[in-house]
Amino acid sequence: MINIAIICEYNPMHNGHLHQIKKIKQKFPKSNIIALMSTSFVQRGEPSIIGKFDKARSALKCGVDLVFEIPAIISLQSADYFSYYTTFLLNELGLIDYISFGIEDDTETFYKLLDFKIKNESKIFELQGKYIKQGYSYKNAYLEAINEIDKNVPHSIISPNNTLALNYALTLNKLNSKIKILPIQRKDGGYNSEKLDKYKFQSATTIRNLIKENYDVSNYVPAELIEILKNTNLHNIDEYSNIFYYKAFIEKNTGESIAGFEPGMLNLLKKNYSDKISDMIEKSHNKRYSKSRLKRFIINYLLEIEVVDIKNLDKINYLRPIGFNDKGRDLINQLKNLTDFTILNKLVDYVTLDDVNRNFAEIDIRAYELQNLNNTKILNKNFKNRIYIK
């Protein structure tokens, strides 16, 4: 049977995600779908709007067979790190036949963009560095580099979803992986789109904004998610403002060892301190520091994720399943003979990890505890919960 992986955040699961799962099932009706999913925190540096076990439950009810947790240290890094190490993890499992991902354009255009990236990757890197030194933002420097090489390349090459999709494909190429790619054109306004219309496909950003404003989102998300939203606590980054204040102003932690640190960044945030982190971000972001970059730094700072931890990422060798059905359970059993990775099924499995990976796993625990800081009823359920759906 064919095993197809989706690298995802499901923040929250919406009709666009369901469209991808349905397209996979149309092409490979008897396939298994494995989700490698960001859990407590997502790549834009925010807590997931709902908890990881609720996310896993919604994924399983919508056609996924097995959900693995992306280690938090990977979820909270830049797109380059995120895409490389998630792909690396899937490759190391020895189980995956395809990685499927959403793309902004038609498949033909995507493959042309991929070919351009493969042929010009080192040149793009060199030129981007030149433009960054001239004061361009990371994104604009990248676009200028692309334009200098070939002005006819579609600007969709820098869209968030195409950036990740191209990076997944490039990583597989670098790893000489046997895994194939299965790109599927998106059906919503794009990763960061906040435009609302009557179309049933909306971006996760739009849906989160609607949920925060108590709008009815039933037209835009699977029915399975509506019940979950009614019975769960919703999270946002402002919940951690007091902790940031304590670390920055009471402990006077300089942040110099923290992943994503740059001289002047923490001082800028402290200068613009507000009792809401979201307000502090609004005052602090500029062409050098995007909102996502600042938020990622803040959460890395609160979780004490250090530069040395990022340097050790090549040593990562564990994954934790947090939800599965019967087919997913069979896949977990198969992994024992396919990979040297430690599959963290029980708390006792953590004892078998080496020091580096135990540190990574402890970051996952801190991430869960930080996300659920204001919900003490579930703080002790991180290891008691695993979602099983027949």
TrEMBL record:
Primary enzyme class: ligase
UniProt: ATP binding residues: 7-20, 102, 161, 186
Catalytic activity annotation: cytidine(34) in elongator tRNA(Met) + acetate + ATP = N(4)-acetylcytidine(34) in elongator tRNA(Met) + AMP + diphosphate
Primary localization: cytoplasm
Entries under Pfam families matching the protein: HIGH_NTase1
GO biological process: tRNA modification
Cellular location(s): Cytoplasm
Entry EC no(s): 6.3.4.-
Recorded GO CC terms: cytoplasm
MF term (GO), any: ligase activity, forming carbon-nitrogen bonds
InterPro entries: Rossmann-like_a/b/a_fold, tRNA(Met)_cyd_acetate_ligase
Keywords, in A-Z order: ATP-binding, Cytoplasm, Ligase, Nucleotide-binding, RNA-binding, tRNA processing, tRNA-binding
UniProt keyword ATP-binding, yes or no: yes
Similarity field: Belongs to the TmcAL family.
Function: Catalyzes the formation of N(4)-acetylcytidine (ac(4)C) at the wobble position of elongator tRNA(Met), using acetate and ATP as substrates. First activates an acetate ion to form acetyladenylate (Ac-AMP) and then transfers the acetyl group to tRNA to form ac(4)C34.
Name of the protein: tRNA(Met) cytidine acetate ligase
Organism: Helcococcus ovis
